[in-house]
Amino acid sequence: MRDSTRRLWDQQNRHPGDRLRLFSAVRTFVGETNVLYPGSFVDVAASFVFDSVTYVDNNRNAARFFADTSGVDEIIEQHRVDTTTAQWRFIGADYETDLDVADHSVGLLVSLYAGFISEHCTRYLRPGGWLLVNPSHGDAAMASITPGYRLAAVVRSRSGNYTISQRDLDDYLIPKRPTEITREALHELGRGIAYTKPSFAYLFQRTTD
Question: What is the pTM (predicted TM-score) of this model?
């Protein structure tokens, strides 16, 4: 493994096991599926849990990291939760462009701290598939107003552990300040909405083509 690969992973993994716990909780809820992770940078923790993951990022350091395929494989093998071999690939591109991914082919779309991924990548998510999204950059709010998505669960974080709940979903995604949430307003705001009852992340299910 290249030293640069190890350094980038160590920087990403500043809270060891955090993303492993997150993705483990998500897999328990959604089941085994193929994953698309736009804006991933070098967060390969999804491959610790899921068998097939496509990572997307246009960052140069991410491209260098994933170019060290044996090093990435080593990191995954060190943390893999079972003995099966994880399949992964990296697309070095802006997720707003057309990706080498078939429409309606993905079971889980990941949107964590990387902008309005749902706006550009929902096309790849199959009906019945899942969007894991946090509120940081406004993408949870975007999904909440996008036809064809329904809030299916919330992801709670406490003391470094993650749980997924489907209780009282109507209590979530209510803005603290009365405001009309529109696509244009979210782009102008450029950040998440403050909610009366926040959650670490949300799981939406795609209901239509």
Answer: 0.96
